[in-house]
Amino acid sequence: MATVYLGLGTNLGDKEANLRTAIYKLQERIGKQVSLSSFYETAPWGFESDHSFLNAAIGLETNLPPIEILHITQEIEKELGRTKKSVNGSYSDRLIDIDILLYDTLVLQTPELTIPHPLMTERDFVMNPLIEIAGNVIHPTRQKTLSELYQE
């Protein structure tokens, strides 16, 4: 079994319900929840919006490969009403966003998926919830704990 850490975010509709529904579907399709952060209210990042975000991080035990997890998360996003993904750094309001942050110590770079998530350490809205549940986890390419990286 592997541990996969996912970042979740929403800034439209009933944000808490969006996160809770996504969490339920993730547990149902990917694996057993081993950790869940608090929900963090954050400002939009990378674009202007009148809608604040609600963000969280979840750790799941899984026997699924990362690419299958990606496809499942994309399917859940569509089911919850997400109509488009961000393209070339063009961000917008969204009902749900689910990102794969870490998958054990795996380092993966394909046209479809990069693990660890390449921008995670630059984003407080990702790192704060992730550190809450995985602060002692070692970043697979930077060889420091997530807490140490966040303090830099």
TrEMBL record:
Residues 5-134 form the 7,8-dihydro-6-hydroxymethylpterin-pyrophosphokinase domain. One of its GO terms (biological process) is folic acid biosynthetic process. Its EC number is 2.7.6.3. One of its GO terms (molecular function) is 2-amino-4-hydroxy-6-hydroxymethyldihydropteridine diphosphokinase activity. Coiled coil: none annotated. The keyword Transferase applies. The keyword 4Fe-4S does not apply. Keywords: ATP-binding, Folate biosynthesis, Kinase, Nucleotide-binding, Transferase. InterPro entries: Hppk (IPR000550), Hppk_sf (IPR035907). Pathway: Cofactor biosynthesis; tetrahydrofolate biosynthesis; 2-amino-4-hydroxy-6-hydroxymethyl-7,8-dihydropteridine diphosphate from 7,8-dihydroneopterin triphosphate: step 4/4. It comes from the Bacteria. Catalyzes the transfer of pyrophosphate from adenosine triphosphate (ATP) to 6-hydroxymethyl-7,8-dihydropterin, an enzymatic step in folate biosynthesis pathway. NCBIfam families: folK. Belongs to the HPPK family. PANTHER family: 2-AMINO-4-HYDROXY-6-HYDROXYMETHYLDIHYDROPTERIDINE PYROPHOSPHOKINASE. This is 2-amino-4-hydroxy-6-hydroxymethyldihydropteridine pyrophosphokinase. It comes from Phocaeicola plebeius.
